[in-house]
């Protein structure tokens, strides 16, 4: 067809991130490209994959990669689970040996190291929620959209963080996604202190309808905000979070100054070739 630009075949993987076994955690696509490609083409691939994020990796040197992330609708500035998936692919497929892996991204350089027992640890920027909207019309509007009273509302760099009464409220949430999409934020994180059922210090769910993802199964970047929030509340730098989506996933967090170390596992569920 005249005017069509053909892209050389590329290796493509689907990985369940923050997962102990297949079909848990958060699925991400990872596409290995030999040279930089057009953003419009990457967006088309991400829309085709229809996962919460598709990661595109371009090798820049030994253990160094350019990394970009796309939802089915937009490019995003930071994504944890697709970064975990990318590191997993590079090591699991024996494409790279060095530690750490370094990723050049729109949020600066991110690194990943092997942490033993199948775990991967990533170094991300902390995102402490520094504005409170507790009480008033804004808080009431979020409560209405979520269908539950809220304890407090805070804003991080990307997302609104909403604290609710307890973990069971988080698990039972059935939000109005259309209403949530109207708030001026990438998404809405809903959280409560853990109740022991999931072996976690805190639980959360994450909603991103404005970005084309009604509910994200396990959100690494949200834990940059959650780590800062709960470490202060609970008085400990190292915590375990459980994202209580239907798929569910566990994220280890450690607050280290203005950085957060995120730890989790990943499982490859698909290998293929992208031919167009």
What is the secondary structure topology, with strand pairs?
Elements: E1 10-17, E2 26-33, H1 39-49, E3 53-61, E4 64-70, E5 75-76, H2 81-92, E6 101-105, E7 108-116, E8 119-125, E9 131-132, H3 136-146, E10 152-155, E11 159-163, H4 167-172, H5 177-180, E12 187-193, E13 202-208, E14 213-216, H6 222-234, E15 238-243, E16 249-256, E17 259-264, E18 266-274
Structural description of this entry:
The protein is of the alpha+beta class and 276 residues long. The chain has two domains: 10-111 and 265-274, Diaminopimelate Epimerase, Chain A, domain 1 (Roll); 131-257, Diaminopimelate Epimerase, Chain A, domain 1 (Roll), CATH 3.10.310.10. 21% of the residues lie in helices and 41% in strands. It has helices spanning 39-49, 81-92, 136-146, 167-172, 177-180, 222-234; strands at 10-17, 26-33, 53-61, 64-70, 75-76, 101-105, 108-116, 119-125, 131-132, 152-155, 159-163, 187-193, 202-208, 213-216, 238-243, 249-256, 259-264, 266-274. The chain has an 18-stranded mixed sheet that branches. A hairpin with a 4-residue loop joins strand 13 and strand 14. The longest helix has 13 residues, at 222-234. The radius of gyration is 18 Å and the shape is globular. The chain starts with 9 loop residues before the first strand and ends with a strand. Residues 1-7 have low confidence and may be disordered.
Summarize this structure briefly.
This protein is α+β, with helices and mostly antiparallel strands and 276 residues long. The protein has helices at 39-49, 81-92, 136-146, 167-172, 177-180, 222-234; strands spanning 10-17, 26-33, 53-61, 64-70, 75-76, 101-105, 108-116, 119-125, 131-132, 152-155, 159-163, 187-193, 202-208, 213-216, 238-243, 249-256, 259-264, 266-274.
